[in-house]
Structure formats: structure tokens, C-alpha cells
TrEMBL record:
CC annotations in GO: plasma membrane; side of membrane
One Pfam family, short name: Trypan_glycop
GO annotation (BP), single: symbiont-mediated evasion of host immune response
InterPro entries: Trypano_VSG_A_N_dom
Taxonomy of the source species: Eukaryota, Discoba, Euglenozoa, Kinetoplastea, Metakinetoplastina
Protein name: Variant surface glycoprotein 1973
Amino acid sequence: MSTVLLATALAAIILREKADGTRGNGLKQSAWQPLCKISEELNKVGPNAAARLSKIATTAEDQSNTADRLTAFAMLTPDVNEAKKAVALAGLFRQLATENLQSLSGQRATKTAINAVAENSYNKGRIDEALTILGLAKNGGNGCLVQASDNNVATVAGNTIGGVQCSRKLTPPATKGYTDYDNIIGPEGWLTAHATTGNTDLSDTTGNKQCVPLKTHTNGLAAGDIGAELPLAHGLLTVINTDSGIKTVTATKGETTRTTRGNQWQSAYHGLKEIEALESAIATNVTENAENQGAHQEVINRAHTNKDELPASKPENLVL
């Protein structure tokens, strides 16, 4: 008798687990809206990289022009010491211009920018694809993305999902300069509300909206059981094949050193930070900050104390 009861109990457990596995509840808005936010913010990657590279190029051009003006001044001024100073500074500005141009032609800056844009555009595409599939996977009153306001399935219309901005396409903003990312990245990685390992806060059960792609057994994405975890949005969401829920991957806490790259999202984060750092990599004019003012004054002093006459021709070749 006890054997029969035990067998019955085990069968009930198995059936319950199987039933739970087919549930496939839709995602709460707290789970999918952050994905829309990340997608929209990643539209800034291309323009930001272009702005950084453009700043390096225009800085080099300005420095080269300044060197030309100083050389012309040295050739025209009757004051020998002033001419020496001008020639010295012209050489300094030309050196800065060369350093900046080399960072572009030598591929250090351009390679950094191209890699970061490629990596993050790929990530954005993975998010957009997942959101599009989940947003359009509807059947009657059922669906995968559930609104917080009324627990109804969110409507996909144009550039929005459930009224939330979510274009799901590459739409770079019309900006002329670098635009900060709005609370999606920080010194340790991604700063988004999706970073949780819990399942219950992600699947909507109040309205019991069914999502076929999120079903882990029978009639799921492949019309049958899935044999392993199914990552969506490049792993930001993961359908658990042994459970009825869905989990998110905590992509925050990315390593703070640029040389260490973990998962794809940590790697992408470092790419964004490297674009940001291109600003500080620009060889700036020596008079623009306190640290370089000493170097500026040293050049002036060396020119002033050098008593040799300027050569009659080509003053730009003067060596101090």
C-alpha cells in the first residue's frame, strides 16, 4: 500500500513539474522595459565614437594651424627673442598635432572606436531581435510582454512597446558631440533594473498571460522540450529548461580594469569606457591645463636665454 502511495505521490510531483514547465508566463514590464532602455541608449555608440575621433582630428588641425601662424610670426617679427619663442612653440604645437594624427593613422584610436561600435551594435541587435520576437508573439489575449498598468499584453506599435520608447532599430541621435549614457553604465558595469537572479519577479502570474517562446516544454519555441538553457538578448534573459521561469544574468560588477573582459556585456561595457577615454588621450595644447603650463614656460625660458642669432633663412629650423 505504501509503495502505491509513494508511486502516486511521485507521479503527481512529476505531473506538477511538467505542468509548471509548460506555463511560460509573459514577462513583467519590470523585466522587459530595461531592455528597451539599453537598446535605445546603445543608439549613441556610433555618434559618440565619431565625435571622439572628430575631436582628435580637429584638435590636430588647430594645432597645425597654430604652428604655421607661429612660424610666420617668427619670420616677420624684428624682435629676435620673440622670434625664438615663436619658433620653439611652433615646434611644440607641430609635435602635438603629429601625436594626434598618429593616434588616428596608427589605428590606436580608430581601432578602439570601431571595435566598440561593432561590439555594441551587435549587442543591440540581439536585444532588438529578442524584443521583436517576444513583442509579436501573441495569441488572442496571451503574449510575452505584459504591461504593469493593467496586466494586459503590451501593444507593439511603431517605435514603442506598451507606450514605452522601444524602436528596436538602429536610430543614431542627431548630436554633434559626445552624449553621456543615461544611467546604463557605471564604473563596475551595467546599471539597469534587470540585474537580478530571481524568477518570480520576472514572470507575470496575475493575468496569467501565456508566452509560447518562454515555454520550456511541449509546444514551446521549437514545439517540444528544450534540452538546455535558452539565452535571449545575448544572455540578459535566459529561459530555464529545467524550470518554469526565466532568469536574468547579472551583468553588473564588470571588472574595472580595461584589460580584463568577462562576458559579452562586460566586454561591451569596457568598449564604451574606452570610447569615453579617447577624450583624455588627445594630446592637448600645453597651455590648456596647469600640468602643462610648466612645460610651456620651460620652452619660453629656453628660447629667451639662447643668445644665438636667428639664422637668416628658415627660422623654423632653429634648434634650441
